[in-house]
Design a protein that fits this description.
mainly alpha, rod-shaped, 0% strand
């Protein structure tokens, strides 16, 4: 006959249950943000858009 353990099984801590430090959260957010690429407008593009908008308004 075997010995039974009456203690409940506790799940391992996950990222959502572990309190992270501010630096760890910031590092995680930076890594997450790296997967997104945004096209940015150059200063020349902004000038062209502003001129076109002004010409259209006149």
């Amino acid at each position: 006959m075997g010995i039974t353990d009456n203690k409940p099984v506790r799940p391992l801590p996950t990222a959502s249950t572990v309190k992270m430090t501010k630096g760890a959260r910031l590092a995680q957010a930076r890594e997450y943000a790296k997967q997104f690429v945004f096209d940015t407008l150059s200063a020349e593009d902004l000038k062209k858009m502003r001129r076109n908008a002004y010409a259209y308004a006149i």
